Amino acid sequence: MPTGNILIDRLLNAQITYISTKQYEDHRTEIMNRLAQKLARKGEKAYIVPEGGSNEIGALGYLNCMREMAGFIKKEKINAVYCAVGSGGTYAGLLLGKKLLKVDVDLNGVIICDTVPYFTEKILNICERAISRFNMKIKIEQNDINLIDGYVGQGYAIPYQEEVEIIKRVAKTGIILEPVYTGKTFYGMLQQLKVKKYKKVIFIHTGGLFSIFAFNKILFSYRN
Q1: 3-state DSSP of 64-103
Q2: Which CATH number do you get for residue 67?
Q3: pLDDT digits (tens, 9 = 90+) for 155-202
Q4: Long-range contacts of 70-73 (CB under 8 A, 24+ apart)
Q5: Whole-prediction pTM value?
Q6: Are residues 72 and 165 in the same domain?
Q7: Which residues are bridge partners to 83 per DSSP?
Q8: Is 224 among the domain residues?
Q9: Which domain holds residue 63?
Q10: DSSP element (H, E) containing 217
Q11: What is the C-alpha R_g of the chain?
């Protein structure tokens, strides 16, 4: 039986195209373009959303998130903001907002897949395209990006014991984290806070609640 997002897609009667891991890694954009062209020939119009919605348009959502937080960050003297980095759009948007609004706060991204060099290049690319497309009077350089590695575990969407223990502990406070993004990010943040001199931080909860149901057995295979 399907769970998570697939279940919702099925409920909405969406047409789902399945591809292999290799196809996803190497040819997902090409495949999406091909499907869009197929729909166009039928007189339909397709809008292609990139992985994670991570492009210059999608990043505007988290630019506005930083806009919403800016006054609070200043008033409460927040030292740092933490977020998950899984496709780069969230971090890119927050960084654009930080630069545009001159928000004095450290912006830390915990990567949950791939590598720091990969995401550094991708985030720079998203930011550069946004700056160009929307005529932003800012400049973003590599040293503006602070990414944290070491919490991916064995790979994307593969939970590990320390992460699962944190998910269970935080759940008792009424906040649900999931094993793919927020669980690893929250665990990474806690480890970082053992050595950082921050007094106040903001953790960006990026959602993903529906995915937790797909990890039912794994979550309870670890015993505290």
Answers
A1: HHHHHHHHHHHHHCCCEEEEEECCCHHHHHHHHHHHHHCC
A2: 3.40.50.1100
A3: 999 999 999 999 999 999 999 999 999 999 999 999 999 999 999 999
A4: 70/97, 70/101, 70/103, 73/103, 73/104, 73/105, 73/202
A5: 0.93
A6: yes
A7: 109
A8: no
A9: 59-219
A10: helix 216-219
A11: 19
